[in-house]
Amino acid sequence: MTYDEFNKFCEKLPATTYVVQWGGSHVWKVGGKVFAIGGWADDQPAYTFKTSDLSFEVLKDQPGLRPAPYLASRGMKWIQHYDTPGLSNKELKDYIKQSHAIVAAGLSKKKQKELGLLPV
Fold first, then answer.
1. Mean pLDDT per segment of 10 residues, for the chain of length 120 residues?
2. 37 located within any domain
3. What DSSP letter does each residue of 8-64 carry, written as one string?
């Protein structure tokens, strides 16, 4: 997946915003909270996303994946896809979508409603 494909996918998720920060990384947020990052790798695209506890345990030791630098070292359940074989594009999109859902669910009900993430 290229950064352009990553950005096009993330912008289609509900109530997202995009900023470039942290040394030029593509940062996607929902309700002001980060759910996906494209960047933080030197030689090829890398994608970082929040996971459930179970997914973190399953993914953290797979080739091409690792606990996300900075985030995981602080006890957060974030994975970075940084090399091959890693995940297929479909799998990566599924995990990014799950990350969006995890972060959105952590927002206050009021904020979720404001963003149109809850039924009216």
1. 95 96 92 92 84 96 92 85 94 98 95 86
2. yes
3. HHHHTSTTEEEEEETTTEEEEEETTEEEEEE---SSS--EEEE--HHHHHHHTTSTT
Q: Please answer whether residues 4 and 105 qualify as being in contact, where contact means their C-beta atoms are separated by less than 8 angstroms.
A: no
- CATH code for the domain of 57: 3.90.1150.30
For residues 77-115, one letter each, b for 16 or more C-beta atoms within 10 angstroms of the residue's C-beta and e for the rest, the string is bbbbbbeeebbeeeebbebbbbbbbbbbeebeeebbeeb
Both tokens of 21, joined, read 């920060």
Q: Which domain holds residue 100?
A: 3-109
The answer to the question of residue 53 being in a domain is: yes
Question: pTM surpassing 0.85?
Answer: yes
